[in-house]
Amino acid sequence: MAYLIYLVKGFFIGIAKILPGVSGAMLAMSFGVYDDAIHAIRHYRQDLLKNTFFLGSLGIGVITAMVCFSHVVSFALNHYYLTTMLLFIGLILGGMTGLYKKVSHHHIRIQHIFVFMICCLFILWIRKFQIHESALEIISPSKMFIYMIMIGFIDAITMIIPGISGTAIFMILGFYPLFLSMIQKLGSISSILNSMGTFFPYGLGLFLGILIAVWIMDYLLNRHHEVTYYGILGLSSSSILFLFFETLSKNYTVTDIVAGLMCLVIGYYLGHKFE
Questions:
Q1: Tens digits of per-residue pLDDT, 43-61?
Q2: Residue range 160-210, pLDDT digits in tens
Q3: In a domain? residue 90
Q4: Which residue segment(s) compose the domain that 95 sits in?
Q5: Does residue 1 belong to any structural domain of this protein?
Q6: 217: in domain
Q7: Whole-angstrom Cα distance, residue 123 to residue 173?
Q8: Could you give the CA distance from residue 197 to residue 3 in angstroms, rounded to a whole number?
Q9: How many domains does the chain have?
Q10: Does residue 4 fall inside a structural domain?
């Protein structure tokens, strides 16, 4: 029964992971499975059977949700771009209130501000590596192999670090359509086999990223708790600004704007509740 509950929790975490702006790790924290998952990965060999069933139950739930909802998100972005994006931005804003609460009761120090600013500038810096969707269609196989390793690595890092949305980072880099199409293929074994040139480097990057990120977060949260969360706040804040200005760069009708603002408020409310 316990593993069925973990599967259901994993399903909701998977929904959060596929939505741009929502942190699956933050939802895992609110469900009470984050610390257990980090411990199970870090000390996997101490109890192979228990850790395998626990991580397997969560993983099946996450993958199932991602496959099911990737089509919904793709449809929404193609037909209702402004309302969908503002909903996602609202979700990030709502989730940031929980991050702020973790550090609001501490005195702000110079190192906190420094780390916050460095992380903000980091998001602005990675914009230089942004790739347009049309460029991905004509990219060489060797470069695509490297990009897929990078996507897997980024996905793993943002999967482990709470408060950061991997899909938001993919949007900034221009990888989100590629990531979404790859997730949609998970529902078909033949599609997976035909796309092993994509899935293998992604899986390699994901595996390496998880090993590194789990070790880093285990160290940072135990020894530099406050500074870590200020860094996460910096990453989240700059991601919001980028997504907001990117969304407003297009032309919209008055109806779209009104509906978008309503979705922004709804997203904030839901993000706050997720937290």
A1: 777 878 888 888 888 888 8
A2: 876 677 777 787 777 777 777 787 777 677 777 777 777 888 889 888 888
A3: yes
A4: 81-274
A5: no
A6: yes
A7: 10
A8: 33
A9: 1
A10: no
